[in-house]
Amino acid sequence: SPFSWQTTFQDGGEEVEDGAVYNVTLKKVQIQQAANKGARWLGGEGDQLPPEHTVRQYETSKIRAIKAGTLEKLVENLLTAFGDADFSYISIFLATYRAFASPRAVLELLLGRFGNLETSNQGEVANLNSLESEMVLRAEIASVLRAWLDQCSEDFREPPDYMCLLKLLDYLKNNMPNSDMESRVQNLLKQFQNQEVEAVDGFCSTSSSDLVDGEELEISSPEEFSSFQDHVVAEQLTYMDVMLFRRVVPYHCLGSIWSQRDKKENKNLAPTVRATITQFNAVTKCVISTILGTRELKIQQRAKIIEKWIHIAHECRILKNFSSLRAIISALQSNSIYRLKTTWMCVSKDILLMYEELSEIFSDHDNYLTSRELLMKEATSKFANLDSSEKENQKKSQKRLQLQKNKGVMQGTVPYLGTFLTDLIMLDTALQDYVEGGLINFEKRRREFEVIAQIKLLQSSCNSYCLLPDQKFIQWFRRQRHLTEEESYKLSREAEAAADTNILSPKSQKSMVKRISTLFLGTDVFTPPKEQPLKGSPVGGSSGESTDSASVSSCEFNHSETEDVCVTPISSPEDPLKKSSVGSDKGYDSDKGSISSDKGSGSSKGSICDAGSGLESGSVPSKDSGSVQSSTPRVLPVYNRQSEGSCIIRVSMDGLHASVYKSILITNQDRIPDVTQRALLKHNLEPDTVEDYELVQVISEDKELVFPRDANVFYGMNSHVNFDFILRKRA
């Protein structure tokens, strides 16, 4: 071709207006064109034409992207962003605005200030001197409303009054009568009014109210469980996971919203995320109850059940269901299961290798790089990309995969949601909501949208699944009575009483137990009380429902939720599982879903994922920086490492709440009163009682570092041990 294009971008600085700050980028396009038709004969082809035989033209355009502004300016920008070449702005705003505004506030600004053309004689509309300008504005508003209904129709579900939908309908009747959009809003209103409140967790609830009359919760017999084929179980778990994941409302995952879930008034907050977590916990508990629930099982029989669950996990991998895959691995790595040393010795070598490879998917190495890369690699692929270092497993995997391909139906991808919850919570912790002048920091929302866009992509991929419910299995799954932590550990001791002496001391065992639910449900990680590890853990307890870095917990369940991960059972020198430990030496990690341990000492310490570990360096400010964007890329603060004058510490409350911690961002400017006040707020305590508390860093089991009242925490802390702190009432 005689034409060639080359595009370059140049930083154009900032533009400041009343109530808004914009980033400006200059886009320069160079168009190279042959000077005459004979140019090719003179030695040039395409963009290799000699300079003397080409004509270069330059076109420069300006891209303006709002980085901070008042709510009014952000809403106004919905109408002008396209003209500023900020083409993704509307999608970013709609996906994240719930963090700083309500649907009603945005709708009133959009329709009241910009859409009321007939009655407005001032402001923006006063400058519209022609009917053509009014038509353009009306078209822009219609475009925004259409995108809102397309992308976030759930924003208008406000029973029983539906005030926003009625307001929108009134606007359309006056300004766009008999339009397609008016009909669409009327239909949406009828749909909401006719729908009963959906039980988003209907697939996984184990309460008796969800059972058919006459049914009771029960421990499954091994024969009944064995009657289900491995691929059928995996398909049904995937069916349930897909139904729940597709219903997840992306803004429910925002850190500013999810981190508020443990407050009493927010018990119904983010129900679509809670439902996904409940299902994850139900799968984990089901695995444990089938292995331990029947006392009469012989060791070989129990080993067969473990083998079956490993096969089911492998089938989940083939189906690209990383949620149930992680739940199963989490359960197998739970305290009560991995301690069954003799039982694990009866598991065949090939299956142990398969288990090891599946566990490696959630390795915490390099910030869970394996699971992150694998997830995005397979997000849009038609089928799983299976690879095994063991020849026999490779043959089985390829055979099963070929059966899937022969069906001719594409597969979606179900992620482990805790990974995204962790990233969003850490973004919320690291980046401030407002910048100088009280402007909303929209750069933060752009960063959050990068994560939300991945969730939406995976939700879209789930439409490729073609799975049908098997009511026999679903009813069986619902009927399962889940063991409490105390029950499961007691049954595990009965099955192999002597195993403890070779694996864990009672003291070590206490700190190993993590909760799978803390995974998503909380901003805290929940560990058993120090006195007696498993005593009285309620099945649906809420005391641990939080973790500031969302993680999956192990599987000694309690409906608290973390996003940590389990690691393989701790091994003695003769332990056949010793090669399958995939966790870090620090234990429970946010993106893995399993319990890990200190290999050297035989003990482990629960943790929520390394705060911010899922985030790459980028041009983002710290929460306290006071600016929208730093001039050079910086690494976001993380747990257990001081970097660029900031870090993240974990603060737990002494006494009743000793096992629950909150992740707190501190800088080199923070002193004891500042950190204490933030910790009290995070723990939902009165912040004006700062003087009543002292902050203590835990150095070891028998050593503490007590800070003076006005000490600088960043410089005073011991940076060579875990950044774990306790807030204690002064004597």
From TrEMBL:
Residues 527-635 are annotated as: Disordered. Keywords: Guanine-nucleotide releasing factor. GO terms for cellular component: plasma membrane. Residues 593-607 have a biased composition (Low complexity). GO terms for molecular function: guanyl-nucleotide exchange factor activity. Residues 645-731 form the Ras-associating domain. It comes from the Eukaryota. Residues 544-557, 619-633 have a biased composition (Polar residues). Pfam families: RA (PF00788), RasGEF (PF00617), RasGEF_N (PF00618). GO terms for biological process: Ras protein signal transduction. Residues 62-193 form the N-terminal Ras-GEF domain. PANTHER family: GUANINE NUCLEOTIDE EXCHANGE FACTOR, RAL GUANINE NUCLEOTIDE DISSOCIATION STIMULATOR-LIKE 1. This is RGL1 protein. The lineage of its organism: Eukaryota, Metazoa, Chordata, Craniata, Vertebrata.
